[in-house]
Specification:
The complex is a heterodimer of chains A (about 475) and B (about 400). With about 475 residues, chain A is of the alpha+beta class. Helices cover about 25% and strands about 30% of the residues of chain A. The chains are: A alpha+beta (about 475), B alpha/beta (about 400).
Chain lengths: ~475, ~400
């Protein structure tokens, strides 16, 4: 049996109430909130956090492939999946690949994961997205940021892969050229009537025919929609009742592009019962429709925080100006500080276990845990008696902190915390996704993978603390 | 076996520029201003100096930054950098030059031109690295101390703010009497307490100035000093301690001390034969880069018992008319902090006090002066402690 053996998700902490967009431009906007990646988040960091959520209680050394799907890869040349594999602390003898450029990239990656699982591999399939619509345009209203992840394999399968139907057509409705940040689209009626309705209809009908199932057999249809309205229309036309349609997350998160249907699938699995059939249908230059059947194993899966947990953990007080600043859509006064120096790539390479897997070391002579790794023990000065010690996942608390109003930041003030890990180890680091008035000595925190800065288009990633939920 | 350098090196002249925003002056101007005063004070010619130790954090590279400007004639010039401890360490190394017998007359100079950079705060040169660890602002590195100290010794944060403000108030009061200080006005307690927040709980008035300036000293062996003047200043002990960053990485550290200050102090006291610093020291110039730093220095240098420094601060023990005046010249807070110059500027106050030249700040019969210079942050730093006196023995 091949299928999903784990799932997880990530939604950024900050939400922009769409009403703020109306306050700025005057035109009516849809209701609800859109999730906004913090200034230090991107599709890689969100994807990595979703993958960690998925594997919260799984052994990542059993992963044989990491596939990352996005239309917003931070690099055009430089793989994202390898970074996520590093964060997951996988083995190095694995396959990694990015699935890019299409809203259907995530379902393509899931199907590739299924193919890998058929060969006996465990594939971590991650989708993360952080798209931009033009200011004051409909896509800015629609788009939100987020990520989901699934481990696909053949042991302890919680949602069996039954069958799929893929439709591929060179259909051009949305696009973003090389070097462009904002999504363009053709007239909406063309996109919906000639594209979306047509291809989703074909793939769903195709997979129903292949499996012999009818709409009534499904507990949920996890159907990507440009908006909930279009999603509902085509689902009804295909014979699904409103109660069967998995919520599109439009009101809490927004349209998260290629990560949207995967995030909905994670939400569906959070509620699923053994025996449920779930139909996943995506869209983009065609459509993929995939049928899963939930197994008894779902009762044994130990989830992480999950989509629901991340959706509930939010701050919705941000205004539109902050959104513009975080996405660097307005020119803001630079700090009167020297230009940031780039990271040394050889040093990044040497320190990859520290930077991605969040490893320190533990001295075999005296048992002192220390970060960052070094060869000489800070406590007993013994040389070369260190063993790798992964600090990620260890309970941690704030020992002391300061709120810095001086530091250059896209979201001042900056909270700097001294974080002590249970079992030993201390790190002085930034504390984000946290209200400065709420931080207290002794508060529990956990680590979150973040984009630290970019110089010479070299993106530096590392860990920051966030409040533990 | 090493016996230390107590009473083996002597200062025969010192100079110090006015510190501040010296937009009218370049590094050459600052060097000439300090060195001219110093040479005149010592009664020697520039060409009589055998070797130079030039300390600067960012204002120039190599000994050439000094020799090109001062046109020293193929003499040894060592450029020294030890962060904010640069000044005192330049002085220390210069002392060794004469004590070792390598040279007869040497000069230690510290200089910094910070205000040409166009940045607020310090511009810190960085090594190539993965740069993943946070590049924290200087005040944030020291701000950790305040809540930790308050928590450990049972002060509420309002009391802690008052202790910090009292230290700033004192240093401004002293600096107001110093014609060379960057900030020469008293600041009321209320203004300090209400100053804009920089790094909680540090307000802007808890932070030292960013300044241009230079200071220097001419040093000989003690047996030669009387050839130049009847009243030299003797080096009693000078030590530095560079830490392993144990505090930064080990949970046992509680942010109420800088071990480097303690260890450098112990070593300098040993060298100088100081057994009761609170009683024996007449004045101390310490590294009050931020007000909580000065507070924990009181305890690390054993001016106060652990947990008692805040009480001594509040009851005026460290005031100009107190039991042990600390930062009588205004300290970094009021005199300013041109990085490389500060350590030597600290010794300059003892020099003036010993010669009765401290004006309205003049103390009665000072005999032992201390300078403590700190580079880095409380949890990982290099600290120098120098002790000088106006009598042998």
């Amino acid at each position: 049996m091949v299928g999903i053996i784990g799932f997880g998700a990530y939604v950024p902490y900050n939400r922009l109430n769409r009403a703020h967009i109306k306050d700025t431009f005057g035109a009516p906007v849809p209701k609800g909130e859109k999730a906004v990646a913090n200034y230090d988040e991107d599709s890689i960091t969100m994807g990595a956090m979703a993958a960690l959520d998925c594997s919260a209680n799984l052994d990542t050394k059993t992963i044989d492939a990491v596939y990352f799907a996005t239309t917003t890869a931070p690099y055009k040349e430089k793989q994202s999946a390898a970074t996520i594999a590093g964060v997951l602390d996988t083995r190095v003898d694995i396959r990694t690949a990015d699935f890019c450029d299409s809203l259907r990239a995530a379902s393509s990656a899931i199907l590739a994961g299924v193919d890998a699982a058929r060969m006996g591999l465990n594939a971590m399939v991650v989708a993360g997205e952080c798209r931009l619509g033009y200011s004051a345009g409909p896509y800015e209203n629609h788009f939100g940021d987020g990520a989901a992840a699934f481990l696909i394999g053949n042991n302890n399968v919680i949602a069996e892969y039954i069958d799929s139907c893929s439709i591929s057509v060179d259909f051009h409705d949305l696009w973003r050229a090389d070097n462009e940040r904002f999504v363009h689209s053709w007239e909406e009626r063309f996109c919906v009537n000639q594209g979306y309705n047509q291809f989703v209809g074909e793939s769903v009908k195709g997979v129903l025919k292949k499996t012999g199932l009818t709409p009534a057999d499904f507990s949920k249809i996890v159907l990507y929609g440009i908006t909930p309205r279009y999603q509902g229309q085509i689902a009804a036309k295909l014979g699904f009742a409103p109660a069967q349609i998995q919520d599109s997350l439009y009101n809490q998160v927004g349209n998260t592009g290629t990560a949207n249907a995967p995030m909905m699938l994670a939400a569906a699995l959070e509620e699923a019962k053994p025996g449920d059939y779930i139909l996943l249908a995506t869209y983009g230059e065609g459509s993929d429709a995939i049928v899963f059947k939930v197994s008894d194993e779902i009762a044994n899966f130990l989830p992480g925080l999950g989509l629901k947990g991340y959706i509930e953990n939010k701050k919705a007080s941000m205004n539109y100006g902050k959104y513009l600043r975080w996405r660097e859509l307005i020119a803001t006064e630079p700090a009167k500080r020297p230009v940031q120096k780039r990271s040394s790539l050889p040093d990044m390479y040497r320190n990859r276990k520290k930077n991605l897997g969040f490893y320190g070391v533990c001295c075999k002579n005296c048992g002192t845990v220390q970060f960052p790794p070094s060869r000489i023990c800070i406590e007993c000065r013994t040389i070369d008696q260190m063993e790798d010690y992964r600090l990620y996942g260890k309970p941690a608390r704030v020992a002391t902190f300061t709120v810095d109003y001086l530091a250059e930041s896209l979201d001042p003030p900056t909270i700097v915390a001294v974080v002590d890990f249970e079992g030993g180890g201390r790190l002085i680091c930034y504390l984000v996704d946290c209200d400065p008035d709420e931080v207290k000595v002794g508060m529990e925190v956990k680590m979150s993978f973040r984009h630290i800065f970019t110089v010479d288009s070299i993106r530096t990633y590392f860990w920051k603390a966030v409040p533990k939920l | 076996m090493a016996i230390g350098i107590k009473d083996r090196a002597a200062v025969i002249g010192m100079g110090c520029t006015k510190f501040g925003e010296r937009y009218d002056s370049n590094l050459e101007d600052l060097l000439i201003e300090a060195i001219d005063e110093c040479l005149e004070d010592a009664g020697v010619e520039f060409n009589d100096i055998d070797a130079f130790w030039f300390g600067t954090f960012t204002s120039g590279m190599a000994g050439l930054a000094f020799s090109n400007r001062m046109k020293s004639h193929y003499k040894p010039v060592t450029r020294l950098e030890n962060m904010c401890c640069t000044g005192l360490d330049s002085f220390r190394n210069a002392c060794y030059g004469v004590v070792a017998g390598a040279y007869d007359v040497v000069m230690a100079i510290g200089a910094e031109k910070l205000k040409d950079g166009g940045y607020s705060g310090l511009e810190v040169p960085t090594e190539d690295s993965d740069r993943t660890l946070p590049d924290l602002t200087a005040p944030s590195r020291f701000a950790f101390v305040a809540p930790a100290y308050a928590h450990k010794y049972g002060l509420d944060m309002q009391q802690m703010k008052e202790v910090m403000a009292r230290i700033a108030w004192k240093n401004h009061k002293n600096g107001a009497l110093n014609p060379k200080a960057q900030y020469r006005s008293e600041v009321p307690m209320e203004s300090i307490l209400k100053s804009p927040m920089i790094c909680s709980p540090l307000g802007v008035m808890d932070c030292s100035g960013v300044s241009d300036g230079a200071a220097c000293a001419i040093i000989t062996r003690t047996e030669d000093a009387k050839k130049y003047r009847k009243d030299p200043m003797y080096v009693k002990g000078i030590q530095i301690a560079a830490g392993p960053a144990h505090s930064e990485k080990h949970q046992s550290y509680d942010f109420t001390t800088a071990f480097e200050t303690y260890y450098a102090g112990q070593a300098a006291y040993r060298e100088a034969g100081i057994t009761n610093p609170r009683e024996q020291i007449s004045l101390a110039e310490v590294h009050d880069c931020f007000t909580p730093t000065e507070l924990i220095i009181y305890e690390d240098l054993q001016f106060s018992e652990r947990g008692q420094g805040w009480k001594d601060a509040m009851n005026g023990f460290f005031d100009l008319d107190g039991g042990l005046p600390v930062n009588p010249d205004g300290g970094l807070k009021s005199f300013g902090h041109p990085i490389g110059a500060s350590g030597i500027r600290m010794l300059y106050e003892s020099w003036l006090q010993f010669h009765g030249r401290a004006g309205k700040r003049q103390l009665e019969n000072p005999r032992i002066g201390l300078a403590q210079n700190l580079g880095g942050q409380p949890y990982s730093c290099v600290v120098g402690v120098g002790i000088v006196g106006n009598e042998l023995g």
